[in-house]
Amino acid sequence: MVKLPVSYERRIYMDYRKLVETIPVAKREPLSNKLIDLVLSSKNDEKMPNQLANTILHHWQNDILISESGLTALLEAAALLEPDKTIEVFTQLELASCAEQLKEVTAKT
Amino acid sequence: MVKFGIEFVPREPYWKIIYYAIQAEKGGFSNLWITDHFNNRNVYVTLTAAAIYTNKITFGPGVTNPYMVNPVFTAQAIATLNELAPGRVVLGMGAGDKTTLESVGVEMQKPLTAIVEAVDIFRKITSGENVIYKGEVFKTAGAKFLFKPKGGIPVYVGAQGPKMLELAGKIGDGVLINACHPKDVEYAVNCVKEGIRQASKRLDEVDIAAYTSFSVHEDIKKANKAAVPVVSFIVAGSPPQVLERHGIDVKKAEEIKEALKANDWGRAFSGVTPEMISAFSVCGTPDMCIERIAELLKSGISQFVVGSPIGANVREAINLISEKIIHHFKT
After folding, report:
1. Is B315 within 8 Å of A36 when comparing Cβ atoms?
2. Å between A3 CA and nearest CA of chain B
3. ipTM (interface predicted TM)
4. Considering only alpha carbons, which residue of chain B is nearest residue A58?
């Protein structure tokens, strides 16, 4: 059987998804709040892919922004728009290992 | 019970505006208004996104004008939006801003007549009529949609001067009053009421909205700081009689105008005084804003519109308004 190559975007998504899965449930809401503030106040609007923006809006509309898929989209957006500040957010929330993982993921992008 | 509306300027990308729109809907706002200026992102594209990502909020352009966009096209856009979000769409129509119109070479001719005719054409064509119209400003020689529009779309007329306010009361299903200070709003509402009386309508048939420049923060200094740029532009654009009515030094206003013209923001913003902020915005802590809104309600408004800048941090400000201000008036 021929193994189909996994797209670059899909690999990145999976990296973020794996990272989100390691975030303790109790930290997800404060993280989501900080990430959304980061994204909304960012001046790097032009870096936001429209599909990712639509995914965030869909999750927000349906109150599932702190679900794993919602948080993955938010994290991906925050890391694209404000990579350094996103790492700082993890540090502030005492998620040191997540901050390290994030550095690795953002280094690939 | 008073309704709360919120205005956004689509200068920011659509996803930020729509994020805030969803937040406003969740927070108890009943109306969403998107401004229409050629130099920002398009109002109907923004409203389309709002229609898709919201579920119950009423929305519309706040406001469009019949000079830049022919009323037939406006009717087409609004009727299509009304298919996307049936019963949630309204039209906000005003005469527009003379300076902006002039910048694209469009003449603002006979504003009162233009509004009457544009609203008339809008209502006829969105009711499915074949419109043959011989107005002073607009003419159609048989304009009819090739689809069946769902009619009955409410029309709000944006107004500031006494004649337009009276007209708005007369022909509008709603009125958007461009004022913030209780003295100005009371005067405006009286003009609107006169129009309502002339049209033999009941007062509760017309939604009277105060469309305000608004800024809220728990820290008054931060609320003021956010309001200053917007207020500086309002002061610069206000006629001397309006400034004098609020005890504002016309010479100081002229200095702000000159500074803005020279793009000297620092000088312009530093010229804004607390009196100017009080006259041309609803600004302060949540309690201060509640007090001001309560005063405005005495004049008979039925909708309070929170307009730019909303607050230093829009997301925080919407949360504050929802949790403290709307909650206060709904309990």
Report:
1. yes
2. 37
3. 0.92
4. B53
